[in-house]
Amino acid sequence: MLRFPHNKINNRGKVRTVLDVGCGVASFGGYLLSSDVLTMSLAPNDVHQNQIQFALERGIPAYLGVLGTKRLPYPSRSFEFSHCSRCRIDWLQRNGILLLELDRVLRPGGYFAYSSPEAYAQDEEDLRIWKQMSAFVEKMCWKIAAKQDQTVIWVKPLTNDCYMERPPGTEPPLCRSNDDPDAVWGVPMEACISPYSEQMHRARGSGLVPWPARLTTPPPRLAEIGYSKRMFEKDMELWQQRVGHYWSLLSSKIKPNKLRNLMDMKTQIGSFAAALKNEDVWVMNLVSENGPNTLKIIYDRGLIGALHNWCEAFSTYPRTYDLLHAWTVFSDIEKKGCSAEDLLIEMDRILRPQGFIIVRDKPPVVELIKKYLPALHWEEVATADSNRELEQYEDDIIFIIQKKMWYTSESFSDSE
Description:
Layout: E1 17-21, H1 27-32, E2 38-44, H2 49-57, E3 62-65, E4 79-85, H3 93-105, E5 106-115, H4 117-120, H5 124-139, E6 143-148, E7 151-155, H6 161-165, H7 198-203, H8 213-216, H9 229-250, E8 261-264, H10 271-274, E9 282-288, H11 295-300, E10 304-308, E11 321-327, H12 329-336, H13 340-350, E12 351-361, H14 363-376, E13 378-385, E14 397-403, H15 408-415
């Protein structure tokens, strides 16, 4: 319908990150993988949790979330494309606040594919809803890029020009000038349009290079988090070295095609995931909710992730990740006064049997974890000093663990 050149779904690398709202078992995201398109499949956390488990068991990125009163855990301008199929979401509720949240996370020139009977308008109620939606998105400056049967694809403007040309008092209003569109941790949604930064407005778009060069090219928003191009490059070099060391320690244990869903429990700008670009894996990059908001850089690099606080449970089903990477996560939660034991239990919950944990932390943390290995049915795979990577200034220990396959009956017999 969009008629990209040569019918390439990823538009020659210009479409990389997609948000699928109400994703079911994530077949839409699974279909796009072969086109180098990475989809965050989002399902509501009420009656559809099992669908997220199916998606993750298929090796497709997925997240339990809800379009409710709080912003989605993604910074502004994260996705080139959003999708809602057989869509029964009431997008117009509360002054269109849900459509405006979708607008916040779409990049300049981003698309929203909406497939619903309303777009087909075969009865009076569908026609009424379609007219209301059409009028509302027009005020948001969205245009129809394509329409066929019950599917319509809207496209966002590239600049702020349309917003500035609207008559005074037009609803929905622009967000306040002091509103931070990238602040998402516990931030209420607002029924307003988030205009582009001056940089994006002048660039007539996000200014990102196509995928896969996007992964290793310093993105335009890098300066917003205080990183220089040289800092970006050094971070990539460091994590390439670290990940190479991890894989050498794991090589005897990893079986072909056994690692697919990975989680970086504390990422900065996504370089752990970038170092795995040649592996057939995807990484959920989690950024600390009270640290530098680097999540926009992760999305700008063509990766995916969310904000998280490890004093709380992560929004996923049990046994859904094959490998967890915990770099100073335990040291961080100790500073917050949270329980290391609770974190170990949460990690055990989301890790699949025979999955791996890479802990990179201070020696006392590693000694603490070792105490709990028998109770958790975990076993040590390898221990190494970080100075093997020529980082003599660090005293971190690399501790690799594997979760064993065990059954309830074994725990009973062990206790007798």
